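Q: Sequence in, structure out?
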Amino acid sequence: MPIVEIVQMGPLPHDLNLRIVTKTANKVQDHFQLVLGDPINHLGQPNSDGEYKVADLAVLLETRRHQSDAELEVGITDAPLCEGLFSGVDNASNNIVVSLAPMETLLPRINKSKADYVLLEIAAQLLTTDYRRQTDLSVDPEVCALPWHKETKSCVFDYCDNPPETLKKLMAPKLCSECRSMFETANIRESVITACLNIVKKAVYAKLLNVLRGVLSDPIGRSLFGGLFIYLVVALFSNAGLNNLQIGGLLLVVLLLVVLKHFRRSRHDLS
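A: Exactly. Output:
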């Protein structure tokens, strides 16, 4: 079973838990063994635009790959990549870099989490590395080369520099017939294809928590939910013998506790 090590590269948003990403990917397939490695904290200096080349980050990952004796190394970063890449593979097909930068502000529009996006990119690039190794294809990360294609058709391998267009892959991705035929011609193992597609399906599956998050982000949905919540609370505590003033005081205490929780979290994030 090929070992794939997931590595944090630089600081990441607090709402992305790579341990959960790793556990999820292992749960839905049995071809790859994903493990969480120690973070790489220093990435070196970006270019004048604040961007990193995939090849430069891959050098750091290659060192870590040899240290951990992993088959593949996957670096997850919040830093932007050159050419606006979402992710990239080095020309040896040994290391994968995934950047959150292009999609971070767009994901809430489709009720997807950062973990969902990371899972999708990891799955696509794992299949990419297997295809390029099998076909002896070596290309620079910034070049659109097989199995990727510039035609956008909600395929996992759409190569598009327009983030809103790329969101379609997270809503209803598929493996287009051309890509399926290409993998069959290259004799890519069905176990690899199935494993990667299972990770993709897990990433795009509509989770209850994400659906609720979408409802609460909508002003009308938030108002209806809040009204229903207050109605149920009043009815419940009225039956318990509390009057309206007592119920209001109880709700105020709960609100203050929530405010205190977020205040402490904001101080923790700044420390």
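The longest helix spans residues 244-270.
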